[in-house]
Amino acid sequence: MAQILSKVEIAPNVHACTVSAMEIARKVEPGQFIIIIPDEFSERTPITVADWDTREGTLTFIFLDIGSSTHRLAEMNPGDEIYSLTGPLGQSFEIGKVGTVGLVGGCYGIGSIYPAARALKQKGNKVICYSEARSKFLLYWNEKLENVSDEVRYATADGSLGYKGHNAGLLESDLKAGMKFDRIIAVGCTFMMYRISQVTLPFQVKTIVSMNPIMIDGTGMCGACRIEVEGTTRFACVDGPHFDGHKINWDLVLARRKAYLEEEIVTKERHHYGESKSD
Amino acid sequence: MAKVSPTKTPMREQPPGERIRNYDEVPFGYSPDEAVLEAKRCLMCKNPKCINGCPVEIDIPGFIQFISDKKFKEGIKNEPVAIGRLERFLADWEAEQGDSELPPKPKATGKKIAVVGAGPAGITVAADLVRLGHAVDMFEALHEPGGVLVYGIPEFRLPKTIVFREINYLEQLGVRLFKDYVVGKIKSIDELLKDYNAVFLGTGAGLPWFLNVPGENLNGLYSANEYLTRANLMKAYLFPKYKTPIVKGKRVATVGGGNVAMDCARTALRLGAEKSIIIYRRSRDEMPARNEEIHHAEEEGVIFQLLSNPAAFHGGENNWVKEVECIRMKLGEPDESGRRRPVPIPDANFRMPIDVAVIAIGNSPNPLIPATTPDIETGKGGNIITDPSTGMTSKPGVFAGGDVATGAATVILAMGAGKIAARGIHKYVTEKKK
User: Fold this and answer.
1) Residue A27: which domain range?
2) Which of A50, A69, A89 is the last residue of a domain?
């Protein structure tokens, strides 16, 4: 159980939710996730932690209202108790001094790259963030990101802010223009992470992606989140969720995400991939 | 008085044709008369071998005598664990009477014990230690306590109300339960040792094995853990009231011959499969499942494709599994387990159309705690090594038992290990000079 302290719709259909979870807030590191069951009937839903306050004992996460369980969460209000909240789960990003790091976020991933940017900046890295949405009004946390990065580069499909197009196109043109990165970290919809991995491959920039496959327990027991990395099956929940984007079997990832198309994920897929496919 | 019967008093069950259309428990349990009839069959040996043979050290002739005398309440005091038909009866009878009677509160020892994992081993340890006056906190990673009793064993074999009744009883005795609490992530073992005099690890064997054959990551392929967790813990059999989906295959193949495989194959039938097929590489005689489970599966119409082992899974549209390709096997010389080894027959592969496959060939111990506690010694299979007489690991004050120490085994063996560890912990915390 965890009490909701605040819940704000920071962009249409995108919610930032802050909950009371002292012990998790003291332990969580950038890139880790929690599993939430909004009410007794809901699914176990993995969500990346986007911010936390160790002193206040609070966690903030970003979620999209896309399936029945996240919809239930979207209906809840400050003061309500979340039925189950478990974490921190998964491995954290490797936060060391590597030089120049490009952090690429889309959808909920804009929230996820925020704590990574903050931590990498504190370690003395040069941090350049990429934030994308269909249109300017769908972007969020711009100021928060700008406060912890050297630069934030925006991509909007309609060109209302920054580059007209997607993160992958913007990053590719930056790389072609001679921008140098020692590492790229991408968090967001599967298709965006796949495209980013494609774009960085010819430039030989190590690219870490944060996988978001279907999960149940999140502790390594069910194997639903199987990812094939260099021909070996890995579990995203315990071995990841961060993997080298150049070594992932992407065909398999994209196919496995569609396993429950008929039941529910169909709405999630549409939301996540709908705009990026034309990229 | 009725004559003592030479055969076991049968337990009434739901007929197979009916029960595969519901998720309710298969046996109905004994009535008081049936229980007394069965109890009277006990020979009441002078030197009862059954107590020595029981992993959880139950005074079997004691409680059977009470049932025989219709003193059901006294029978309960011999530890109500829902195992075996008679114990099952006592537990049912007690549940009907309302709240369990609590034993007198023991004198507090001032010692604190952390139990990690609320499965069969952890529940046993917690129960024994709280009765000795220790303060027990139990940590569970999932949102429900019970471990495999809740996520794995289906409702039709073990109704969850029985498990939750036991947990509730523990809480009434004073055990504090912390759900959604992943030890190894939220707190390390060393951090627990700062707050507790001893730690017990009963984290189970939940890391699923796969066959490592081509096509195993196709859609429609589940580990037994995933299949059963969706169906049981997440109640996918009640979809869409409960939101977790499960693929309701028409032709479901379950690979493996153990109790878990039987559970999966029988679950598939209840989810509406037209054909539920067990694929097992040896013959029926070598199957590790309990006879009763195999019998129940056969009665319900599960098909046994024996002496067969998957070589590959073939996909169709949208990366969905469409066929399983099997190697035909014959039995060779016995292997180290004493069972005859399956030997492939060359050029005899065959294919079967399927739309769901469940891999139920076993699990390794959960690696999370060993991985985050390097000074706990583990064996080749990733199991935590313990002193068999006390349950203590290589790390002082840390004990372990159940599947995490033995590798995947049975509920009753895990409970037995819990008994031993509880004694080991009691001795350790009461004798230790601080």
Assistant:
1) 2-89
2) A89
The answer to whether A258 faces chain B, any CB pair under 8 Å, is yes
Q: What integer best gives the mean pLDDT of chain B?
A: 90
Of B208, B243, B366, nearest to A43 by CB-CB distance is B243
Instruction: For residues A132 and A270, state if they share a domain.
Output: yes
A140 or B40, greater pLDDT: A140
Tokens 């309609």 correspond to A158
Q: Chain B interface, mutation test: which of A215, A217, A228, most B Cβ atoms within 10 Å?
A: A217
Cis peptide before B6 (omega within 30 of 0): no
Chain A partners within 8 Å of B142 (Cβ) = 86, 217
What gap in Å lies between CA B265 and CA B224, rounded to an integer? 10
Minimal CA–CA distance to B218: which of A190, A266, A221, A256? A256
State pTM to two decimals.
Answer: 0.90
Of A41, A86, A260, the CB nearest to B182: A86
CA distance A165 to chain B (A): 29
pLDDT digits (tens, 9 = 90+) for B286-295: 999 999 899 9
Q: Considering only the top CATH level, what class is B16-96?
A: mainly alpha
Give the pLDDT confidence score for residue B7 in this predicted structure. Answer: 81
Q: How far apart are CA A130 and CA A145, in angstroms?
A: 10
For residues B51 and B78, give the distance between their C-alpha atoms in angstroms, rounded to a whole number. Answer: 12
Same domain, A158 and A218: yes
Instruction: List the single best residue of A24, A72, A211, A222 to mutate versus B (max B Cβ within 10 A).
Output: A222
Contact yes or no for A36/A85 (Cβ under 8 A): yes
b or e along B61-92 (b: 16 or more beta carbons within 10 Å of the residue's beta carbon)?
bebbbbbbeeebeebbebebbbbbbbbbbbbb
Residue B82's pLDDT is: 46
Per run of 10 residues, the mean pLDDT along chain A (length 279 residues) is 94 95 96 95 94 96 90 94 96 95 95 96 97 95 97 96 96 96 95 95 97 88 90 90 95 76 46 37
Check if the beta carbon of residue B26 is closer than 8 Å to that of residue B19.
yes
E-assigned strands of B299-345? 303-305, 308-315, 321-334, 340-344
Largest CA distance in chain A: 52
Q: Do domains B112-206+364-431 and B210-361 have the same CATH topology?
A: yes
8 A C-beta contact, residue B418 and residue B402: yes
Determine phi and psi for A47, rounding to 5 degrees.
-140, 135
Cα dist from B298 to B194, B278, B283, B336, whole Å: 52, 10, 14, 29
CA distance A82 to A2: 5
Report which secondary-structure segment, H or E, holds B157: none
Do A219 and B366 make contact, defined as CB atoms within 8 angstroms?
yes
DSSP class of A33:
E
- Establish if A273 belongs to a structural domain: yes
Contact B223 A263 (CB under 8 A): no
What percent of chain B shows pLDDT beyond 90? 62
**Which class is domain B112-206+364-431?**
alpha beta
Cα gap A243→A208, rounded to integer Å: 5
- B210-361 topology per CATH: FAD/NAD(P)-binding domain (3.50.50)
Q: What is the mean pLDDT of residues B132-140?
A: 97
- CB of B221 closer than 8 Å to CB of B370: no
Inter-chain CB proximity A216 and B141 less than 8 Å: no
Q: Which residue do the tokens 């690890």 mark? A: B201
Give B186-222 pLDDT, tens digit per residue. 999 999 999 999 999 999 998 999 999 999 989 999 9
Q: How many Å lie between the alpha carbon of B171 and the closest alpha carbon of chain A?
A: 18
Considering its fold, how many domains does chain A have in total? 2
What the block records as the tokens of B252 is 């479901």
pLDDT of residue B89: 67
